[in-house]
Amino acid sequence: MSAKKSESTDVCDSQLDLLARPNDRSRCHMRALAGFVFFILVATGAFCVCVVIYFTGGYREMINRYDPETVSGERSDCLRLASQGYKELCEKCPAPNTSLKGLHMKRQAEPCLPLIDYSASSTPSFNIQQTPTVTPKLTNYRIPTSLYPTHYNIEIQTYIAGDNSANFFFKGHVKIWLRCDEPSDNVTLHLNGLTVDYSSLGFYSKDLDHSSPNYTDWSADKKRNFFILNLDDFTEAGKTYVIEMSYTSPFSKELNGLYLSSYKGKNKIHYQAVTQFQPTDARKTFPCFDEPAIKSTFNVTLVRPSGFTSISNMPLINNSTTLVEEGVTYVKDVYAQTKKMSTYLLAFVVSDFSYIQTTTKDGVLCRAWARQEEVSNTAYALNITTQGLAFFEELFGVSFPLPKLDMIALPDFAAAGMENWGLMTFR
Ligand SMILES: *[C@@H]1O[C@H](CO)[C@@H](O)[C@H](O)[C@H]1NC(C)=O
Ligand SMILES: *[C@@H]1O[C@H](CO)[C@@H](O)[C@H](O)[C@H]1NC(C)=O
Ligand SMILES: *[C@@H]1O[C@H](CO)[C@@H](O)[C@H](O)[C@H]1NC(C)=O
Ligand SMILES: *[C@@H]1O[C@H](CO)[C@@H](O)[C@H](O)[C@H]1NC(C)=O
Ligand SMILES: *[C@@H]1O[C@H](CO)[C@@H](O)[C@H](O)[C@H]1NC(C)=O
Ligand SMILES: *[C@@H]1O[C@H](CO)[C@@H](O)[C@H](O)[C@H]1NC(C)=O
Ligand SMILES: *[C@@H]1O[C@H](CO)[C@@H](O)[C@H](O)[C@H]1NC(C)=O
After folding, report:
1. Rounded Cα gap, residues 326 and 24, in angstroms
2. Where would I find the Aminopeptidase N-like N-terminal domain in this sequence (predicted)?
3. Hey, which of 2, 55, 97 would you mutate to test ligand 1's pocket, going by the most ligand atoms within 8 Å of its Cβ?
4. Atom of ligand 5 at shortest distance to CA of 317?
5. I need a surface site. Which of 59, 125, 198, 254 has the fewest CB within 10 A?
6. Whole-prediction pTM
C-alpha cells in the first residue's frame, strides 16, 4: 500500500517537472506525452481524492455504531464546540484498533464526534460553511474542578497471554467518587485514546438520591483530551456523586500510558505490561482528572493471566478470584487503597519477573524485580535502597509512609527511572 503510494508520487513529480519545462524538440510527440501525463495526473488525483474520502469519510460506518437516541444531543454539542473553534473535533476520529474477539462489548464508539451532518437544517443558527477559518487560540487547558475526585476504583484486565502480541490489548472499568464543590451541569474528565463502552456509562449520587441529575449525552474535546458528560440539571455543592464507565484500548505504541515491554528469552519473547504516566498519560489508561494538584485515593485491581505476576503502588490484599476467558485463566489481584496522591504517580506492571527482597529496620518491605536470569544482579541496588531510605527518613524526619517499596528494571523504558510512589520503574 505505502509502496504503491510513493511510486505514484514519484510519477507525479517527474511528470510535473516535464510539464513545467516544455520541450521544443518534438512538439507533436510532446503533446501525446502531455496527454498521457495529464491522464496519469488525473488518475492519480482521483486516487488521492478517493483515499482522502476513504479515510476522512468513514462517517457512515461510525454513525451506524452510535446510539441513534443520543446522536442529536451529540451533534448539537459538537456543533456548539465546533462553533467555539474546536472544529477539528468533528473532522477525524481515529478508532483504536482493538481486537474485541469474545468480549461481547455491547457498542463500540470513539470518544469523538464525527457526526456533523452538513445538510442538517436542525441547527439554523450555525452553518458550518460560514465558520471563520481562523480558530481562536486555545489557552486554557485546565480541567474544571467544580467536581473534585476523592477516590477511584480502577480495574484493568491485561490481555497479554500467548505469543501473538498483535492481539494484546487491555480492558478497564473505572468508578470515580466526585465531591461537588460548585454546582456543575457536566462532568469533565481527561481521556485519551480509550474506546468507551457507552452502554456502561453511569452517573448518580452516592446515596442514590432520585432528585440528583441524570446524564443526557456526552461530548469530546480532543484538543484538551476532555471527555464531557452533560447533565440535565446542576449538581449540588457538598454532595458526592459517582461516575463509572468501561472501556478498552490497544496498548500504547509509545513508552507511555500502558504499553508493552518485551525481551527475547531462551525460546520465546517475554512480554510485560508497564505504565509510565508522568506527565499526562494516566488518561491513556483510565479516565481521570489528570492534573498533579488533584489528589485522590485509588483502589487498583489488576486482572492478569495466571502465568504472570502483577505489582502496583500498594501491597496485594486479595488474589482469590479467578476467571477463565477463551481458555486463559486470569487472576484478580486486588491492591490496598493508596494514600491521597496524583494520577501521574500511579503505576503497575504485569510481568513474569522475579524478585529478591529485604525489610528495612522500620519494617518496610523492599523488593527488587528483574527478569529471572538478571535478578541476582539487583542485590546491590536493594542494599543501597534500604540504606538510602534510612538516610532520607533521618534527614527529613519523616518515615516512609508506605508499607512497601518495589523497584523494577524494565527492558523498554523511556526515562532513566520514574519515582512512582511505592513502585519505582527503571530502564
Ligand atoms: C486492525 O485489526 C484488524 C482486525 O483485528 C487486523 O486485521 C488489522 O491487521 C489491524 N491493523 C493494525 C494496523 O493493527
Ligand atoms: C462544564 O462545567 C464547567 C463548570 O463546572 C464549565 O466551566 C465548563 O465550561 C463546562 N463545560 C462544558 C463543555 O459545558
Ligand atoms: C433521573 O432518573 C431517575 C430514574 O430514571 C428519575 O427517578 C429521576 O427523577 C431523574 N432525575 C431528574 C433530575 O430528572
Ligand atoms: C477476597 O475476595 C473474595 C472475593 O471477592 C472474598 O470472598 C474474600 O473474602 C476476600 N478475602 C479477603 C482476605 O479479603
Ligand atoms: C496470592 O497472594 C499470596 C500472598 O498475598 C501469595 O503467597 C500467593 O502466591 C498468591 N497467589 C497467587 C496465585 O498469585
Ligand atoms: C478500597 O480498598 C479498601 C481496602 O484497601 C477497602 O477497605 C475499601 O472499601 C475500598 N473502597 C472502595 C470504594 O471500594
Ligand atoms: C550491604 O552493604 C553493606 C556495606 O557494603 C554490607 O556490609 C552489607 O553486608 C550489605 N548487605 C547486604 C544484604 O548485601
Report:
1. 71
2. 149-345
3. 97
4. 5
5. 125
6. 0.71
